[in-house]
Amino acid sequence: MDEMLTRALLHGYRQVVRPGLFRARGGDAEKIHEDMIRALGIAGGLPGAVLGAGSSVMGTGKGVELAGISFPGRVGVAAGLDKNGLAARAWAGLGFGFAELGTVTAQAQPGNPKPRVFRAKQSDAVINRMGFNNEGAAALASRLDGWGVRRGNAALGIPLGMSLGKTKVTPLEGAVEDYLRSLRLLADKADYIAINISSPNTPGLRSLQDGDALRELTRALVAEAKVLNPSNPVPIFVKVAPDLTWDALYEVIGTCELAGVAGLIATNTTLDRKGLKGDDVRLADEAGGLSGAPLTVRSRAMVARIVQHSSLPVMGAGGIMTPADAQAMFDAGASLVQVYTGFIYNGPALVRGINTLPHN
Ligand SMILES: Cc1cc2nc3c(=O)[nH]c(=O)nc-3n(C[C@H](O)[C@H](O)[C@H](O)COP(=O)(O)O)c2cc1C
Q: What is the pLDDT of residues 78-123, one digit of tens each?
């Protein structure tokens, strides 16, 4: 029964909704995404009964306790899907157990010139070079304030992570202060903070994954979280790139453990272009990060390595296109999973399918 309903949802989305969605707005992937977020923003504002009904159809799975947070389900919205939190009230109703809003930066910024999102349909993948277009951390904070969101109060039904990045015009030497500004604006609303140092689309950002820079950044953020709430500091997660060598990954793990980071998120998008198939190969030269099916194996391998080398909990992201991919990510040791590209290609059925996995 569970499986039949998930299959029907998947079929409906892939055969009916998706073709229309992908063709709408002249096929402009970013405009369609904005329409979807706007529509979900409206749906999320409808009376609670509608969302309640939604989540009973979508199931939630068994939930998990992690870093002092109670997650009602193990599949979350990956960062970038709802950068400004416009649809934050809708995610619980779609069956998500948490949502990572952002990435936001200390200053609002427009991101890179368009076009900056490219669908690689034959490969079940996306290339994006958005460049942290967002309204800024203060705008997200005030939007969430308006909905009564406070850390731990589950005002929108699920825990909310908030992903922080560096403002493009801030030089790398000012990165720590830039992240601290965003942290101060959001720490009393976020159930966890994700430090995004792994987007390929802000020049130099990934160098913050290196030795001293990462040490300084993680220590400063963990210390500030304690200053802001000495008895119960907001947990800080670090999101890593799939392109790190194993040695670089081990160094990141060691630095994060010493700094008191609560966990890792693996992974962001890749610069690699392996996995592009057929006509999509023509997109290989587009600058940006590749997500979706080409990432599945690499992201899972990163999660497995982290789990072998550390006791830090891991959220697994990258190429989770099917419930079986999520199961494999859990089997590799991920405590939670996040989806972005799989949700675009397969819709809410993916969330439901993960929530109703036999062992979930
Ligand atoms: C269009 C787009 C925008 C993204 N923006 C962000 C972002 O702002 N912050 C971030 O940490 N990750 C961002 N990501 C990366 C995703 O959160 C995720 O880590 C990655 O896409 C791998 O998961 P997936 O294969 O399920 O998409 C973005 C991905 C896409 C496709």
A: 999 999 999 999 999 999 999 999 999 999 999 999 999 999 999 9
Catalytic residue among 55, 123, 198, 199: 199
Number of domains in the chain: 1
Contact at 8 Å (CB) between 302 and 252? no
Give domain status of residue 161, yes or no. Answer: yes
Whether residue 292 is annotated as binding a ligand: the answer is: yes
Q: Whose alpha carbon is nearest atom 10 of ligand 1?
A: 79
Tell me if 170 is assigned to a ligand binding site.
no
- Look up residue 104 and give its DSSP letter: E
Q: Is 330 part of a structural domain of the chain?
A: yes
| Residues 29-44, mean pLDDT to the nearest whole number | 92
Confidence (pLDDT) at 23: 82
118: β partners: 127
pLDDT band at 62 (very low <50, low <70, confident <90, very high): confident
Please check whether residue 104 lies inside any domain of the structure. yes
Asked whether residue 49 carries a pLDDT value surpassing 70, the answer given is no
More confidently predicted of 191 and 12: 191
Looking up tokens 């096929």 gives 27
CB atoms within 10 A of CB 161: 27
Considering the domain boundaries, does residue 360 fall inside one?
A: no
Domain boundaries, position 329 = 2-355
For residue 53, the model assigns a pLDDT of 52
User: What atom in ligand 1 is closest to the CA of residue 317?
Assistant: 23
197: amino acid identity, one letter: I
CB-based pocket (< 6 A), ligand 1: 78-80, 83, 103, 117, 126, 128, 130, 132, 163, 196, 199, 239, 268-269, 291-292, 295, 317-320, 339-342
Which pair of tokens denotes residue 240? Answer: 């890593």
Taking a C-beta distance cutoff of 8 angstroms, is the pair 339, 78 a contact? yes
> What CATH number has the domain bearing residue 323?
3.20.20.70
